[in-house]
Amino acid sequence: MANYNPNLVKIHRNYTYEELAEVFGIHKNTVAQWVKNGLPCLKEQRPFLVLGVEAKAFLQTRRQSSKRKCKHNEFYCVRCKKPVKPAENFVEYVSISPTKGRLTALCECCEGVVNKFVAYTRLDEYEASFDLDKPIGLEHIKDTDSSL
């Protein structure tokens, strides 16, 4: 199931199947399938019209139904398409900036890499849940041998 951006639809506009398909760059039969799956449509006369506000609400509902919320001790695995716990409860913190970073682990199901972005201030909460590996600060090179 593709994830279409509902914000591309103008809510004060009516669309034919072809026009709505053109907005998303898809085939008009995809829009017809959406109508079969519950997208409200005006079918009193031809061409059939889809109200913009109803198309936007339909696509937002589809997008929300496909989301998976992760608990505090879970990561989202793209390969498994579900929230999973890290393998052997081992997590590594990779700093991105002084205030935020990324927790990296392996999926317990498929052993793929999973990530979660966290603030540095919340790292203590994750340290209580996981076997957390924090890198030691990098050393700066103070002296060089170059003679310019």
Structure description:
With 148 residues, this protein is of the alpha+beta class. It has 2 domains: 60 residues, Orthogonal Bundle (Arc Repressor Mutant, subunit A), CATH 1.10.10; 59 residues, no CATH class. Helices cover 26% and strands 22% of the residues. The protein has a 4-stranded mixed sheet, covered by helices on one side. Strands 1-2 form a two-stranded antiparallel sheet. A two-stranded antiparallel ribbon has the order 3-4. Helix 1 packs across helix 2. The radius of gyration is 24 Å and the shape is elongated. The chain starts with 13 loop residues before the first strand and ends in a 15-residue tail after the last strand. The model has no long low-confidence stretch (mean pLDDT 86).
Topology summary:
Layout: E1 14-15, H1 17-24, H2 28-36, E2 50-51, H3 52-65, E3 75-77, E4 82-84, E5 90-95, E6 100-106, E7 113-119, H4 123-129, E8 131-133
Parallel strand pairs: 5-8
Antiparallel strand pairs: 1-2, 3-4, 5-6, 6-7
Helix pairs in contact: 1-2
List keywords for this structure.
four-stranded mixed sheet, 4 helices, alpha+beta, 22% strand, 2 domains, Arc Repressor Mutant, subunit A, two-stranded antiparallel sheet, 148 residues, 26% helix
Strand arrangement across the biggest beta sheet: 7-6-5-8
Going by CATH, the architecture of the largest domain would be Orthogonal Bundle
Tell me the radius of gyration. Answer: 24 Å
- Strand portion: 15-25%
Major β-sheet, in short?
Answer: 4 strands, mixed
